[in-house]
């Protein structure tokens, strides 16, 4: 699956006539097959009256060189959780039939939860499928609970390769393209996992993040998620690809700046490990008094202009300058936050907030990180307190926004599914005119204008827009599809309910007329 791009050059020699130019297909589609012969229609009239002497100077060159670019042979369609970068892209397409077209069994694997060994099946939070086009084929990269990362053919829904890690993979990975000098482009897949079956939190080395060659499925390096004051050494976050580095956040709440060159490594025992450029500790000592060891950073970092936005279980929303690699924004909300910061087109951040550790209600907050932290809150949407399993309420997953799918006439919306079982859809840039008590339990904050509040069921997953008019919501009772109608009054109407009764913690991906998602029942589904 290597990348070979050659320009297609046609040299056409002619005189006394002109060519009727063929239309060229968009570069995203295969070029048409050229016929063996070209039909040239003469533009010379049947008779031509001329003076006794005529000097004719030809304006037609002897040769014309036409260069038609080939479509890219290798293209990353969905690179990371929620698309990477601003974390607001979920693929392109629309589901119309609302039926399961095919499914693939991806099994289950053992993992340790609170000193007990359990078997988890399928894939869960965040578990979003990544997409790569290689030649004319599309491949799905799916993290799984059976300890294997899978590459799946979208055409056949069969496994192309598997790479085994030390434990289940809760988060999805990141794939990026790397080339150096005259070497051919390669695709590097970065995938995290839990710390390792049977491993202790206090071991010297816990390799919870790996780099894998997409072409060979072979390991390029593994990263030791070192011991910190956090009680986890997993790696759920999806790394962020920058211009000149990779930024990865481990559940030890340490951020790692790593080289993009997958061969810039050092030997660590029997393994190759990436050379670490810079590390950042994403908690303060005072956080340990409130949170103890629950300093876990599970959210994926996002990019907001020159700032890398990171949220942590210690209750902080950090902004790290991508060049200086120093923290220059710090809003201490205090809650455990697992949702990834989502950046809209205005470079504002929408961040979900859990109930745990705070006096007020959990919910959704909109921030302007260019302002000082105490002046940066633009609005807050509190949701109902609800105890569900080990959660106290609020919103666990991330926010979905429609910025990549709307016209200039359509308003930017957000959508979140909360632990209270409600789907909240609202305007990003319109206030309700009222206020509610914020996350601290005392401060009155502006609230956004809602479009709809729809009762579904509890969920820790993240909704997606497939286009401006379709919203998909994963829950503990399958997938819900909604149609959005724009106008003076926006309508959100339920269209279908698929995979009823199944636990869907993973975030779906859409491409064309297919939606891909994994369930906790051990299966990976294609829905049309």
What are the SSEs and their pairings?
Elements: E1 8-13, E2 63-68, E3 74-78, E4 91-93, E5 100-105, E6 108-113, E7 116-121, E8 130-134, E9 137-142, E10 148-153, E11 159-164, E12 174-178, E13 186-192, E14 207-213, E15 219-224, E16 240-241, E17 246-249, E18 254-258, E19 265-268, E20 271-274, E21 278-281, H1 285-291, E22 302-304, E23 307-311, E24 316-321, E25 327-332, E26 342-343, E27 349-353, E28 363-367, E29 377-382, E30 385-388, E31 391-393, E32 400-401, E33 413-417, E34 422-437, E35 444-455, E36 464-467, E37 470-475, E38 478-485, E39 491-498, E40 509-512, E41 514-518, E42 523-527
Parallel strand pairs: 4-40
Antiparallel strand pairs: 1-2, 3-8, 5-42, 6-7, 8-9, 9-10, 10-11, 12-13, 13-14, 14-15, 16-17, 17-18, 18-21, 19-20, 22-23, 23-24, 24-25, 26-27, 27-28, 28-29, 30-31, 32-33, 33-34, 34-35, 36-37, 37-38, 38-39, 40-41, 41-42
